[in-house]
From TrEMBL:
Cofactor or coenzyme needed: FAD
Name of the protein this chain belongs to: Acyl-CoA/acyl-ACP dehydrogenase
Alphabetical UniProt keywords: FAD, Flavoprotein, Oxidoreductase
Domain of life: Bacteria
Residue ranges of every copy of the Acyl-CoA dehydrogenase/oxidase C-terminal domain listed in the record: 218-365
GO molecular function, one term: acyl-CoA dehydrogenase activity
Entry-linked PANTHER family: ACYL-COA DEHYDROGENASE, ACYL-COA DEHYDROGENASE FADE28
Stated family: Belongs to the acyl-CoA dehydrogenase family.
Boundaries of every Acyl-CoA dehydrogenase/oxidase N-terminal domain copy: 6-117
Organism: Sphingomonas lycopersici
């Protein structure tokens, strides 16, 4: 595949970079942290007016009809600026699956997403469950519908979303529901996160669930589809976070004088920054590869897990290097580099960290479910 961006993709990336850079910086983030707002609503509307919230919404619903690569470019710029926005939750885990599998009635929300009027999310994480595509939440037949029982945790913007995609396991297999959070039997409690992203724990107690995404027979494939896209989106977000953290670290070490010479002139520092650059580029190539495969409709879970593995292990190494090379400033929670450390850590662990991804990749290789490397001989 060719990793070179098309002219339209480059223009989209540049527009996102300009808007996010102009509206999300160290000063604005410092002020935002003192507010009680879950996200920057003004910036959200600015992105909507620029057409960026509709980047992957079908043109029939007021969007641009683009794919995961374009969404990844937008997420990378969000990671670079740490803009406090529900982009991943709404566009990747919400709008994308509704556009792909939803009924006409379900897709009626998509124009409002593109206009910045609706927030969506997906409840994927569960305590003690390493495979969000095989949920522990139970769905039980109740008349013509279903009831849900169980708990979902770390749901991004769970208290702000208008609709929540919820995978659950029934006797018939996995089913994905589109849930109104105001449904009786649903309790939403706020959860604090190190990165300050609003998340929620959602408890279902015999909650009625009648709105099924796709069909019950498609549920397992839809749940896997959502998780794959969510992981690819996180990988793209991590590229932006770590690339900017490394850029800031290189600039700081070039200016910081230690023992009468720039810190960046010391070989040990140079080696560590160079290793970080290699990690970022590995993260970038695997994230682009994952997005391209998804856009092509190629089912390759191990390659998606590879992108998430690099987002986890590379994100861990780069964020720690950035913090360490800033010395005492790196430990200062009010200093900007610490925001990147916290953001990278959250992305590292979301939907599976390095070890769960490595284990999944190993199982796929052992089962013969992966393609050989280019040029490999039997």
């Amino acid at each position: 595949m060719d990793f070179a961006l098309t002219e339209d993709q480059a223009s989209l990336r540049d527009l996102a970079a300009q808007i996010l850079s102009d509206n999300s910086n160290d000063d604005s983030l410092r002020a935002f942290a003192k507010d009680d707002r879950p996200y920057d609503a003004a910036l959200w509307q600015t992105l909507a007016e620029a057409g960026l919230l509709g980047v992957a919404v079908p043109d029939a619903h007021g969007g641009l009809g683009q794919g995961m690569i374009e969404l990844g470019l937008l997420l990378e710029e969000q990671g670079r600026t740490l803009a406090p926005l529900p982009l991943h939750a709404t566009l990747v885990t919400g709008a994308l699956p509704i556009a792909a599998f939803g009924s006409a009635a379900q897709q009626a929300i998509l124009p409002r997403v593109a206009a910045g009027e609706a927030i969506l999310t997906a409840a994927l994480e569960e305590v003690g469950n390493h495979d969000p595509a095989r949920p522990m939440l139970r769905a039980t037949r109740s008349g013509n519908g279903w009831t849900l029982d169980g708990v979902k945790t770390a749901v991004p913007y769970g208290a702000q979303a208008e609709r929540i995609l919820v995978p659950a396991t029934s006797e018939e297999g996995v089913i994905v529901f589109l849930i109104d959070p105001a449904t009786p039997g649903i309790e939403i409690g706020a959860q604090r996160t190190t990165s300050s992203e609003p998340q929620a724990q959602i408890t279902f107690r015999a909650a009625q669930a009648d709105d099924v995404l796709g069909s019950a027979a498609q549920g397992a494939d839809i749940a896997r589809w959502i998780v794959d896209h969510a992981r690819a989106g996180l990988a793209a977000l991590q590229v932006g976070i770590c690339a900017e953290a490394l850029r800031r670290t290189a600039a700081y070490s070039s200016e910081r004088i230690q023992f009468d010479r720039p810190l960046g002139g010391m070989q040990a520092v140079q080696h560590r920054v160079a290793d970080g650059f290699i990690d970022v580029e590995a993260m970038r190539s695997t994230a682009l590869r994952a997005a391209w495969l998804l856009d092509q409709g190629i089912v390759a879970p191990a390659e998606i897990e590879t992108a998430k593995y690099w987002a986890a292990i590379g994100g861990h190494r780069v964020s720690h290097s950035a913090q360490h090379l800033h010395g005492g400033l790196g430990a200062d929670m009010d200093y900007p580099i610490h925001r990147y450390f916290l953001a990278a850590k959250q992305v590292e662990l979301a939907l599976g960290g390095a070890q769960p991804m490595l284990a999944a990749i190993g199982r796929a290789i052992a089962a013969g479910d992966t393609q050989p490397l280019a040029g490999a001989r039997a």
